[in-house]
Amino acid sequence: MTGHSTGQGMQSPAMRRVRDLLRGPAIVCDGRATIREAAKLMTDAGRRAVVIPTETTGFGIFTEGDLRARVVVGGIDSNQPVSTVMTPSAVTVDPDRLGADAVTDMLEYGLRHLPVVTEAGALMGVLELSDLLTSATNQGFELRAALATAQDDAHLVETARAVPVLVTELVASRVSPLDIGATLAVLIDVTVRRAIELVVDGDERPDFAWLSLGSVARREALPSSDIDSALVWGGESHHEGADAAKTIHDILDLCGFPRDTKNAVATQARFARTLPQWRTALRKWVSNPYQDQALVMLSMLADARVVAGDPALDPRPAALDQLRLHPAVMRLLLREAVGDKAKLHSFKDVMTRRTGTVDLKASAVQPIVNIARWAGISVGARTSSTLERLKAAAGSGFLLDDDAQVLIESFEVLQQIRVRHQTDQFAAGRPPTDEVVISELTPLSRSLLSNAVREVAGVQRRLEYAASASALPDIDP
To answer: What is the signed CA dihedral for 359, 168, 170, 252, rounded to 10 degrees?
Structure first.
């Protein structure tokens, strides 16, 4: 990720490793300690959280917020064991992750404290939101909370109007476009979940999983992102579910998160199936990838993410496994990723004349996303993030280290140009799109754009040659 320095020349907390942001070891107590004793430990140490080791879940956590909400407001006796009011399975963060990633985790789960735990299970400390806080970050947390607690659909729609305003402020604060994309995706997720809660009666909620697809699922959302979705039913699907999906998307449309224009949404029978039906479809698509838009469907499921409902109904793991078991399908994914160079050539012509328009997503970003998907799945990466897939595949034999770095840097540059262009459109009262008038770009942006597209095309050519020469390794299932 790209970041920026503070006025004092110090590195932004967002770009520092979590281990370097810790203010000291964690405050730890036994689960049998009383709530009063745990609270005294926090007060004496000047900290806002205490960690409780557990035999079953690793670590529990008890915070000042828990003390207020669960003990004071809940009227619980402070002489009760702290284990009765702690969060029994704390969300943790690896010490080598960036501060920006930790902020995204906090925003996603609505947390202000993350125990920092090594891969070996050692507790290093507790990262607090205040260690990372900026004005824009704080606004993101406040907006997330407002969206999650909207009283009705009208209130949700009204609250969601602040989302593009926040994105504009994040851009003005020089937040990385990758972090902006992750933040926006989290806010969209929260809005989707709240819309589902408002539409579906909690007491009669069907057994289901609501999937996010596309850029939002990859946490690479931008203001122009539309909402692709799918449903997985645990039991039998029914018409009431389709009606509910339509109502949910109607609310999201009003919130400023429009449904996919190509109808890749849960209102369509093609995107709403029982789990056995999804698995049957997966087997059909990998067996005959030339029919039924098989490659499109497989690619979408490979990026999918459960936003609401039962995570056990997620069809994505099965999709990834099926793809790795079918090398012929993976070769087709590679062919698709490197074969569509017509747009790049026409883009080059446009750049030479400095006239006309170009679709930044189709002409420049999508090839990177497609290569990353193929390479990441090839090496067994379970992430859907474009950058994480590229990092996982770098130097693997499927993707040269240099080529992976070229794609990473190009992706960052292109996302920066896209988000600035789209926030400019929003400020001018126009709907955000990826259509850019080349002559309206600054000379620097034109140069960066031209270089990025040229570099991506170069990687495509090298991969195409490697595939034709049978120089790529076999996928190890």
So the answer is: -80
Give the span between the Cα atoms of 160 and 179, in whole angstroms.
Answer: 19
CB 471: neighbour CB atoms within 10 A? 11
Contacts of 469 (CB under 8 A, 6+ apart): none
Strands 228-233 and 208-213: antiparallel
Distance of CA 8 to the CA centre of its chain: 31
112-126 pLDDT, tens digit per residue, is: 999 999 999 999 999
Q: Which helix (H) or strand (E) holds 305?
A: strand 305-309
Among the listed residues 262, 466, 449, 446, the one whose alpha carbon sits nearest the alpha carbon of residue 375: 466
Q: Which CATH number fits domain 330-468: 3.20.20, 1.20.120, 3.30.450, 1.10.3470?
A: 1.20.120
Q: In terms of pLDDT, which residue wins out, 301 or 234?
A: 301
DSSP helix/strand/coil, 224: coil
Q: What share of the chain is helix, strand, coil (3-state, %, to 5)?
A: 55, 15, 30
* DSSP letter assigned to residue 475: P
Cβ within 8 Å of residue 260, ≥6 positions away: 214, 226, 227, 228, 229
What residues pair up with 358 in beta bridges, in sequence order?
436
Which pLDDT score, from 0 to 100, does residue 98 have?
Answer: 82
CA 115, distance to chain mean position in Å, is 21
Per-residue pLDDT reduced to its tens digit, 215-236 = 999 999 999 999 999 999 987 7
Architecture of domain 135-320: 2-Layer Sandwich (3.30)
pLDDT of 49: 96
Give the CA count within 13 Å in the CB-facing half-sphere of 133: 12
SS (H, E, C) 375-422: HHHHCCCCCCCHHHHHHHHECCCCECHHHHHHHHHHHHHHHHHHHHHH
Domain layout of the chain by residue ranges = 13-131, 135-320, 330-468
CATH of domain 13-131: 3.10.580.10
Q: In whole angstroms, give the CA distance from residue 309 to residue 153.
A: 19
* CB 310 within 8 Å of CB 209: yes
Bridge pairing between strands 228-233 and 435-437: unpaired
Taking CA atoms, 197 is separated from 117, 126, 273, in Å, by: 33, 32, 20
Give pTM, 2 decimals. Answer: 0.86
